[in-house]
């Protein structure tokens, strides 16, 4: 039975994780960490199926878990959906206490990821960080890599609920980066720069992302998380689109990562390897 701690347990994603974990026969919710939760005592997570909340440790801060961690049923895996600053502290705590970490919080810097790579390489615990736990979105990025060498241009439209504060989304940036990287790995030139010379309303052509791939962000009530990659070539276009209709779409990926993390060495970024989608190197493809 895997003991699971959830950091950011009072948030929208954290609550989904609590629900998802409480429905698994091989997992037990053992700790909830969230300053909001401790203050409002489990509002929104009181009615978790198959979970005795009196046996769950509830604390405001990951450092408060250290003392109870040894006393109560320990966490085997801590899942973090909080804010970037807190997620870095969660990962440090996990590396120091030999507890596996699964992190979905967005906005982690390259510096933080490098620091965590070092921290988990000398820990007995491992960490999986995924910018997107929706398996369909992971597949969309991989399919995009397969298409990029064969098409003559691509633009990305990402669409999210109007409560999202950052733009473009992390998934859109990651998608553009991967399209540009796969072309560079194949020795192909970047796609031609945008030829627009007049833009009376600034921003009409979106923003130039990695590799010059144009990124367009839509924010509207009613939307959840959606992305379309539109490829163009002579006389044709090809679009791939992913739609997440609610936050439960992320849970199969989160549960997959919880079950896989003990088998991954050190820090893993993304779910591709766990899904068997690692990009073949250009050399191995050529053989
Ligand atoms: N990787 C993915 O697939 C994926 C999917 C959706 C959202 N996200 C990301 O997950 C994160 C959370 O999203 P959300 O919609 O649940 O946000 P939210 O605002 O609803 O919840 C965040 C929670 O974190 C808590 N928190 C803040 N500081 C904390 C601390 N020091 N310790 C513990 N908890 C703390 C807050 O009190 C809040 O309850 C965001 O970064 C979001 O971008 C990732």
Provide structural commentary:
This protein is of the alpha/beta class and 287 residues long. It folds into two domains: 2-129, 3-Layer(aba) Sandwich (Rossmann fold), CATH 3.40.50.720; 135-245, Dihydrodipicolinate Reductase, domain 2 (2-Layer Sandwich), CATH 3.30.360. It contains nine helices and twelve strands. It has helices at 12-22, 35-40, 62-71, 84-97, 110-121, 135-147, 170-185, 251-260, 282-286, and strands spanning 2-7, 27-33, 57-59, 77-80, 100-103, 127-129, 153-160, 207-208, 214-219, 225-233, 236-244, 267-269. The strands form two sheets. Strands 3-2-1-4-5-6-12 form a seven-stranded parallel sheet, sandwiched between helices. It has a five-stranded mixed sheet with strand order 8-9-7-10-11, with helices on one face. Helix 4 (84-97) runs parallel beside helix 5 (110-121) and helix 6 (135-147) packs parallel to helix 7 (170-185). The longest helix has 16 residues, at 170-185. The N and C termini lie far apart (44 Å). The chain binds nicotinamide-adenine-dinucleotide. Nicotinamide-adenine-dinucleotide is lined by residues 7-8, 10-14, 33-36, 61, 81-83, 86, 104-106, 130-133, 250.
Question: Which short descriptors sum up this protein?
Answer:
287 residues, alpha/beta, Rossmann fold, Dihydrodipicolinate Reductase, domain 2, 7-stranded parallel beta sheet, 5-stranded mixed beta sheet, 9 helices, elongated, binds nicotinamide-adenine-dinucleotide
């Amino acid at each position: 039975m895997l003991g699971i701690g959830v950091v950011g347990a009072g948030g929208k994603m954290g609550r989904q994780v609590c629900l998802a974990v409480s429905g698994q026969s091989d997992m037990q919710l053992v700790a909830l960490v969230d300053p909001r939760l401790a203050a409002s005592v489990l509002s929104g997570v009181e009615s978790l199926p198959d979970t005795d909340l009196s046996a769950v440790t509830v604390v405001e801060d990951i450092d408060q878990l250290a003392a109870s961690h040894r006393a109560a049923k320990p966490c085997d895996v801590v899942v973090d959906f909080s804010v970037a600053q807190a997620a870095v502290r969660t990962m440090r705590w996990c590396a120091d206490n030999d507890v596996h970490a699964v992190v979905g919080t967005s906005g982690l810097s390259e510096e933080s990821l490098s620091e965590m790579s070092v921290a988990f390489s000398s820990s007995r615990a491992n960490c999986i960080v995924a910018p997107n736990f929706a398996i369909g979105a992971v597949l969309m990025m991989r399919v995009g890599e397969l298409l990029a060498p064969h098409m003559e241009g691509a633009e990305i439209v990402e669409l999210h609920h109007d409560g999202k504060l950052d733009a473009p989304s992390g998934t859109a940036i990651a998608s553009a980066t991967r399209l540009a990287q796969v072309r560079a790995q194949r020795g192909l030139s970047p796609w031609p720069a945008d030829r627009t010379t007049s833009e009376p309303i600034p921003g009409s052509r979106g923003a130039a992302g990695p590799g010059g791939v144009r990124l367009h962000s839509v924010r509207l009530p009613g939307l959840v998380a959606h992305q379309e990659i539109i490829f163009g070539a002579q006389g044709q276009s090809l679009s791939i689109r992913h739609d997440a209709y609610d936050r439960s779409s992320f849970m199969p990926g989160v549960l997959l990562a919880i079950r896989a993390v003990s088998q991954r060495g050190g820090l893993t970024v993304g779910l591709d390897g766990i899904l068997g989608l690692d990009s073949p190197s250009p050399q191995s493809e050529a053989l």
